[in-house]
Amino acid sequence: MSNNPHRHQDSTGDGSIPFVSVMAANADPTFRALVSYLARRTGLPITMLEGLPWSERQALLERGLASVGAICGATYVRLTDQHEAALQLLAAPVMLAARYEEQPVYFSDIVVPAASRAQTFGDLRGGCLAYNEPQSFSGYQIVRAHLAAHGETGGFFSRTIKAGSHQAVLRMVAAGAADAAAIDSTVLERELDLQPELPAQIRTIAALGPSPIPPLVVTRQLPAALAHTLRATLIDMHRETEGRTILQAGMLSRFVAVEDADYDPIRAQLQRASTITLNGAYSQDL
Q: Between the CA of residue 141 and those of 81, 182, 184, what are the distances in Å?
C-alpha cells in the first residue's frame, strides 16, 4: 500500500476524487470552476461528475462512489444521524450579499406571482404551494416547521404541488400556476441575475431563516490528509486573485470551516416539521 498521503484509491478504481453537486443546476458553473481551481491548486485529481439526475448524484455520495459533494443541510443531517452514509463536513460557503452578514447561512424566500394580493405569509392561507422536493429543507421542510411554530396545521394550504426543482417552482409561480413557493435564497439570486424578466413576474413577501447553509462534505473513505488539503485550499481561496474571481462570479464571499453542531438548528426545524402533513401533495413535471 502506498504511503503517499495524496494517493487515493476511490471506488472508480482510477484514483480520482469525484465531486457531485446535489444543489440547483444554476450553481453548476460555480462548482465546475471551483473543482477546476481545487485541482490546479492542490494537484489532486478531483473531477466533477455531471449529466446525472440529482437523485443519482446523491446516491453516488451516499454509497461512497463520489468522494466530495455539495448537499442540502437536511440531507447531511439525515445521513449523519441515521448512519446511512459516513460523511464529514468539509466547509461551507458564505454568500456575498449584505443580508448574509458574512455568515454561512441562507434564507427561504417566500415568493408569489407579481399580481398576487398577498403581502404576508398569513395571506397565503387557502392557497396552492409549489415546492421542489420533499427532501428539500429550503423549499419544503422549513415551510412545515414554520407552520408548526405558529400553531398552524397541514390544512393551511389548500393543496401542494411537487415541481421537482426550484427553477420549475419559479416557473409555476411566475405563470400564476401556484400561489406561493419557498425558494433557496441563493438559487433565487442567481435566477434573478440570469433571467432579466423574472423580477417583473414574481415578488418576495417574506423570508424564513436564516438557516445553516448547504455544506460541502467528504466521505470518510477519503484520507484525512486529502480532506485537510481541500479544506485549507477552500478556506484560503478568497485571499488570492484567482480564488476571489471564482467566488465573486458565484456570488460567494468565502468558504469557512463548520462543525456538526452548526447544523443543530436544522435538526430542530426538522423535528418541528415532522408534526405537520401538508394537504394534497401531488407531482407535476415541468
A: 17, 10, 12
